[in-house]
Amino acid sequence: MNRFQTTALSLAIMSTLTACGGGGDASPPADNTAPTVAITDNVDSPTATGQIIFTFTFSEAVSGFSADDVAVTGGTKGSFSMANDSRSATLVVTPTSGATGTVTVSVAAGAFVDTSSNPNTQGASATQDFNTIVSGDTGSCLATPCISFSESAVGIETFGGIVAEVVNDPALATNKVAKLTKPVGAEPWGGATVHLGAADFSLDAVDASKPLTLRVRAPEVGIKVMVKIEDAANGAVNVEAQALTSKANEWETLTFSYPGQNASATYNKISVFPAFFEVNGSAVTERVVYVDELNYTKKPAAPAAPGLTFATNFAGAADTTAEGGKWGGYSGGDADGYNCTNGVSFCGIGLNNAVGEPKDRVYYYYVAPLTTTALYSGVYVMAPGLTALNGNVAGLNVSSKTKFSFVFSQNPEWFNSTEKNFGVLFTMSKIYSVGGGSDNCRIQLWQVVTPTSVNDTAYSINLSGFRVLQDCGTGLSTAQALAQETVAQIDFKANAGGTRFGAPEGAAREGGNLQIKNGDNLYPTTIVVKAPLKFE
Predict the structure, then answer these.
(1) Please, are residues 45 and 129 in contact by the beta-carbon 8 Å criterion?
(2) Could you tell me the fold of the domain covering 155-295?
(3) Per-domain residue ranges of the chain
(4) CA 502 to CA 505: how far, in whole Å?
(5) What is the distance between the alpha carbons of residues 525 and 374, in angstroms, rounded to a whole number?
(6) How, if at all, do strands 212-217 and 251-256 pair?
(7) 3-state DSSP assignment of residue 484
(8) Contact at 8 Å (CB) between 384 and 396?
């Protein structure tokens, strides 16, 4: 048997081998560290208004964690997902509907384990305040042209049996809304005009090319609501839009669009029709519809038109324009001796002169007897500072301009006749003597216009399109007359039957209403001219 003596050197070598793992396998130290979890959510603001996504971030990969391990108060659990690396999870929580409060989520100790089967020894929790009360107030109706019904000047003018009042929002007592009640027996077309105190109920003009919205709370799904926008000075100029409610006793936003709107029209009056054309005469209960946040886009102000202004409006003293030019009207026919004042016909002139109106529209109507076979009617406007055509006068020099622009409308009976055309007449500034008379002739230029709409429509006609109606023996052409003289007066004329001006063969002819009857008279021939009148 061999014996080896243990020396100091051999002991050192053995010690070194042991430290390097020699001498057999060694187990790593045991993992006894408990995993932890931190809980956060996706809501940046102090208060949530809808679903909340809670994220659970673990200190290491875990297993055994599910939605069942999360306790929730103040809301309802939704979808749950675990990340592929098992280091995080998410849970969607829906707060209690129509309430305010706090959602609390918590995870208890022992809810999950790590890869070494160590359970979490500490729980975790998180809270999030919420407000899911849906009221009429979205918080975005802060200034005109949005009406929140909290304005001190807000008014509601009802018609057709509707009852209206400003009340507390049934969903939020601090919010003011309009309550529109349609009692049993109210007219199917009953409604309410919303305004801010103007005598004519006008508001800032609506840009009808963009949608209008209205917050609505109705008792049932499928209640029809109509919103009508119109010209406060002319109710015939209007467009309507309808929408159906999709919720019962809950607030929602209805949108109203107006594809048939006229871009040149003014829509500055708004009416709401709750339960529109629902025949309440047979209903067993009344309809109560709440509305809030009447919101629309304000029509931008028209840019200042370039060129020369003949008339800005008709608001001057003694029937003059803002520039001091005289304006007026005239008419007659063969049945009244070509003079409306003889008592067998009716005529009149006026302005849009309601409170707050700019007085930029003048109208003249002529109602002729049925026996009429020829008539004339017109509105005249004189040049700035001109109140009479006596001798040579100082008109407006338009020699550098190429177009004349204005707004024109007429009554539907005339427009729907076969002689709806109207004419524009320029009377020039110099006076001539012809036919042995003295100072008895002025050059006149004439153009016939075919209207494209019965309503206010902007026209811009070429000056080169005028022809010389009378040249007073000068032989001047249109271009020469406009270059050498100024425009003293502009007439917008209707002539029908034997009073029509002569015209080259095939040229357009002016007209007037000799066709559409109304009892013992013809329907009127009505001329409406809207300023500004400009040369461009």
Answers:
(1) no
(2) Jelly Rolls (2.60.120)
(3) 37-131, 155-295, 308-535
(4) 9
(5) 12
(6) antiparallel
(7) helix
(8) yes
Structure tokens at 334: 């063969």
Are 66 and 108 in contact, with CB atoms under 8 Å apart?
A: no
Q: DSSP string covering 246-303, please?
A: -SSSSEEEEEE--TT--TTS---EEEEETTTT--GGG-SS-EEEEEEEEE-PBPPPPP
How far from each other are the two terminal CA atoms of the chain, in whole angstroms? Answer: 131
334: Cα separation from own chain's centroid: 48
Show Cβ contacts of residue 244 under 8 Å, excluding neighbours closer than 6 positions: 221, 222, 223, 224, 225
Kind and range of the H or E run holding 19: helix 8-19
Sign of CA dihedral 430, 501, 388, 528: negative
Architecture of domain 37-131: Sandwich (2.60)
| pLDDT string in tens for the chain (536-residue length) | 344 344 443 434 444 444 444 445 567 788 999 999 999 999 999 999 899 999 999 999 999 999 999 999 999 999 999 999 999 999 999 999 888 999 999 999 999 999 999 999 999 999 999 988 888 888 889 887 999 999 999 999 999 999 999 999 999 999 999 999 999 889 999 999 999 999 999 999 999 999 999 999 999 999 999 999 999 999 999 999 999 999 999 999 999 999 999 998 999 999 999 999 875 444 457 899 999 999 999 999 876 546 799 999 999 999 999 999 999 999 999 999 999 977 889 999 999 877 777 899 999 999 999 999 999 999 999 999 999 999 999 999 999 999 999 999 999 999 999 999 999 999 999 999 999 999 999 999 999 999 999 999 999 999 999 999 999 999 999 999 999 999 999 999 999 999 999 988 889 999 999 999 999 899 999 999 999 999 99
Q: Which two tokens stand for residue 54?
A: 């809670």
At residue 6, the 3 state secondary structure works out as coil
Are 474 and 443 in contact by the 8 Å Cβ rule? The answer is yes
The SS3 of residue 342 is helix
Q: Where are the beta strands (DSSP E) in 429-477?
A: 444-449, 457-462, 467-470
Q: Where are the alpha helices (DSSP H) in 358-467?
A: 412-415
DSSP state at residue 521: E
Each as own residue / partner, the long-range contacts of residues 463-467 (CB below 8 Å, 24 or more positions apart, any chain) are 463/398, 463/401, 463/402, 463/403, 463/404, 463/535, 464/402, 466/424, 466/426, 467/504, 467/507
Q: Find, among 360, 449, 380, the residue nearest to 410 by Cα.
A: 449
- How far apart CA 124 and CA 153 sit, in angstroms, is 54
- Angle at CA 93, nearest 5°, toward 91 and 94? 155
